[in-house]
């Protein structure tokens, strides 16, 4: 993972345009700053602040001193903390769950993860250093930029309770999803059962205080291009798998692009596109998109609605818009 760095011997000026007003934040005494050292902190899909990660000086032969500045959404500094981390540590992401700030680092030299959690004033709550993930995950991390890596292997906030992380399991054909509390103590972990014959990958989609939802992609071999998409839901407290249902149907192929939990209910919306049975999802042009509603208490589908590009959506567009639909 090659990250460009800028040597800043005197000061660093951070400039953002927020609304109609330009906001600035400056600090001095930085030795170096990664181009990915500034990360937005998200809470309920909204930016609530920023973390600025920078190197100050050398700690010893293998470690460096780093600084974290916690900024609010208007770039006003909330707090600063100094930490010692391995020289090749890269900040993958910060996430905020309303109570705790979780930071995830990838140690490039050892190929493992370092987690730290802090309260709203940057007082440390807990920390964790993991064993190395399997070589397939490490190889992917080394090839990806940090934003892409965090979407696959990063942390996801559970409101007020902790953090969820998904990734490879013990082997390349398995996935593991783990729930940590605010101090990064593991509460539960689920892995693809050994008896499963499929290659499985799980992508987290939406989380609230009760449910973890996502998409499980299954194929019968490492090189197989035929992918089956399943909606998968876990109980946040227990880790019990509540739902694992295929999006396929006897009439057409269905892909899954997103899951969205409906606030204040035990229902969720599943969204994706539908194809003819002999089409290749993601390659062939889809016939349209669909919305399904599931009740997570009963693990049953409540309703389904399909929207055809030609019949339903096309009539809403002018000629130029219809061309864009034809071009997928």
The global form is globular
Task: Describe the largest sheet.
Answer: 5 strands, antiparallel
Radius of gyration, whole Å = 22 Å
Order of helices and strands: EEEEEEEEEEEEHHEEEEEEEEEEEEEHH
How many DSSP H or I helices? 4
Number of strands: 25
Percentage beta strand: over 45%
Residue-averaged pLDDT: 82
What is the SS-derived class?
mainly beta
Report helical residue fraction.
under 10%
Question: Between the first and last Cα atoms, what is the distance in angstroms?
Answer: 32 Å
Spans of 5+ residues with little confidence (pLDDT < 50)? 1-12, 15-21
Topology:
Blueprint: E1 5-7, E2 11-18, E3 21-28, E4 32-34, E5 38-43, E6 46-58, E7 63-72, E8 77-86, E9 89-96, E10 101-107, E11 112-118, E12 124-129, H1 135-143, H2 146-153, E13 155-158, E14 162-168, E15 175-181, E16 186-191, E17 199-207, E18 211-219, E19 228-235, E20 241-246, E21 253-254, E22 258-261, E23 267-275, E24 288-295, E25 300-308, H3 309-313, H4 319-326
Antiparallel strand pairs: 1-4, 2-3, 5-6, 6-7, 7-8, 9-10, 10-11, 11-12, 13-14, 14-15, 15-16, 17-18, 18-19, 19-20, 21-23, 22-23, 23-24, 24-25
What does this structure look like?
- 9% of the residues lie in helices and 54% in strands.
- By secondary structure, the chain is mostly beta strands.
- Residues 1-12 and 15-21 have low confidence and may be disordered.
Keywords, please?
single chain; five-stranded antiparallel sheet; four-stranded antiparallel sheet; disordered N terminus
In summary, what is this structure?
The chain is mainly beta. The chain has helices at 135-143, 146-153, 309-313, 319-326, and strands at 5-7, 11-18, 21-28, 32-34, 38-43, 46-58, 63-72, 77-86, 89-96, 101-107, 112-118, 124-129, 155-158, 162-168, 175-181, 186-191, 199-207, 211-219, 228-235, 241-246, 253-254, 258-261, 267-275, 288-295, 300-308.
């Amino acid at each position: 993972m090659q990250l460009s760095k800028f040597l800043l011997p005197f000061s660093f000026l951070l400039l953002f345009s927020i609304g109609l007003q330009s906001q600035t934040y400056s600090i001095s005494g930085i030795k170096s700053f990664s181009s990915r050292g500034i990360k937005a902190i998200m809470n309920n899909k909204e930016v609530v602040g920023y973390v600025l990660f920078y190197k100050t000086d050398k700690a010893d032969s293998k470690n460096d001193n780093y600084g974290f500045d916690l900024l609010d959404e208007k770039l006003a500094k909330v707090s600063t903390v100094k930490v010692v981390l391995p020289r090749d540590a890269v900040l993958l992401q910060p996430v905020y769950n309303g109570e705790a700030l979780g930071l995830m680092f990838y140690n490039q030299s050892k190929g493992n993860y370092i987690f730290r959690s802090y309260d709203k004033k940057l007082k440390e709550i807990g920390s964790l250093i993991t064993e190395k993930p399997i070589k397939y995950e490490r190889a992917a991390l080394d090839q990806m930029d940090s934003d892409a890596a965090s979407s696959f292997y990063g942390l996801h906030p559970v409101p007020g309770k902790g953090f969820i992380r998904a990734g490879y399991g013990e082997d390349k054909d398995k996935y593991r999803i783990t729930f940590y509390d605010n101090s990064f103590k593991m509460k539960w972990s689920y892995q693809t059962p050994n008896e499963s014959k499929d290659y499985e990958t799980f992508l987290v989609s939406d989380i609230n205080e009760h449910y973890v939802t996502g998409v499980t992609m299954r194929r019968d071999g490492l090189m197989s291009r035929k992918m089956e998409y399943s909606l998968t839901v876990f109980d946040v407290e227990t880790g019990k798998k509540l739902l694992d249902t295929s999006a396929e149907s006897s009439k057409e192929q269905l892909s899954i692009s997103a899951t969205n939990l409906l606030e204040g209910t035990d229902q969720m919306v599943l969204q994706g596109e539908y194809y003819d049975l002999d089409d290749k999802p993601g390659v062939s042009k889809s016939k349209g998109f669909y919305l399904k509603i599931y009740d997570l208490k009963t693990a049953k589908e409540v309703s389904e609605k399909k929207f055809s590009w030609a019949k339903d959506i096309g009539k809403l567009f002018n000629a130029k818009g219809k061309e864009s639909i034809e071009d997928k």
